[in-house]
Structures are given as C-alpha cells and as structure tokens.
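The pair is quoted verbatim as follows:
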Amino acid sequence: MGDDNILKNTFPQAIRISWEEVESLLWEVFLELKSSRYDPDVVVGIARGGLAPARILVDYLQKKYICTFQMGHWLGDARLSEKPNIIFPLPEVDLSDRNVLVVDDVSDEGGTMEEVISYLTPRVGDIRTAVLISKADSRYKADYCPKVMQQWRWVLFPWSRHEDLLSFTEKVLQITGGATLEEIIRILEDAMSVEMISSEIEKVLFDMHQASEIAEGSNGIWTLI
C-alpha cells in the first residue's frame, strides 16, 4: 500500500465540524453581535463557504436581507492567481448607507477577507466581518470569531466535506495505485488524524464512478481510469 510516511506527508491534519457545532459557533457570533450592539441591515455570505453560515445567522438575527458574491483564485483562462478575485460581483443594489455584516466559514491566511474588505468598503455604509473559525496565523482578524485554531488543521465543514473527501480519495488512489473502501478509510484516518465515515466515502466513490473517473475490480479495489 506504499510508504505510510509519504501518505502522512501528503495529507493535512484535519478536524471535522458537525452541523450542531456550526450552529453553536454561529450562536456565539450572534451573542457577540448583540453585545457589541452592531445591527446589520444586510448579511453578505461570501460564496461558497459563507453561504450556509450567513443563512443561519440571518435566521438568528431575524433579518430579511441576505446577498452574496463569489471570490476565487481562478482566472478566466483557467489559471490560478495568487490573490483571490471577484468571480461574481454583488448584485446592483445601493448599500451606501447600510450596515453590512460579511460572513465566511474560515480564515486561513486572511487574503480572501482582505480582498473582500477592499471590494466592499467603497460600496457600503459600515462593514464588519464574522468567521466561524480563524487560523492563529491568519493576517486578518475578523470582528467576530468564536473559534481560533492554534494549530493549523484542515476543516471538514458539512457543506464542503464531499468535495474535500473526493479530492483526498483521488490522491489516495493516485499514490497507492488502487485501494478498497476500507483501505481508503484507514489511510485517510491514519494520515489526517480524523474520523472518516464509511457512508461519506461510499458517496465519493459513487460520484467518481458515475463520472467515469474510477473503476472497481472484482476484488473491491478502486482504481483511477
């Protein structure tokens, strides 16, 4: 199955965040907002990671207005840029006299939120930011952040877990040349120090198989096509 050291150096250490934990973290953000007496007119969820948290937070705040725009590192010709760019901008709406709360799921290095602030500042009345989790070495410190990670970990959020696990599973198959469901789970758990749910990996394999990216041998070993 290959060198375990190679596998551990390939995959990041990770933590799994449940929906219940998400709601608890967002409730802390809500309480911080109330304590600071900041009353946003509009909540902006940064696509894609900030969409689900923004919707839940709007519910807690009992606000009606939510909008979004999308950031990304992709350029038009499929090249990656060093800094995140606006892929889909805000809708044409006047926010010049509105209090705006910008929501994202995680702040890794802080580059995304820095670009967001630069983009929104001339377009809104007042702006504050909230993230569920911030890495300790992030350059940007959000106004509201209930959880700071002192040690860097990949965060498996409910809304992006399938995409993450698909990428990690593909890497396992690339390195090993082929693996069973049980072997994939063991490798990822050992390398990333986080629990893997069998049904989630089964969905990943189903998705990859439907896309004709992998094939299953008679011995239950999945290989890349």
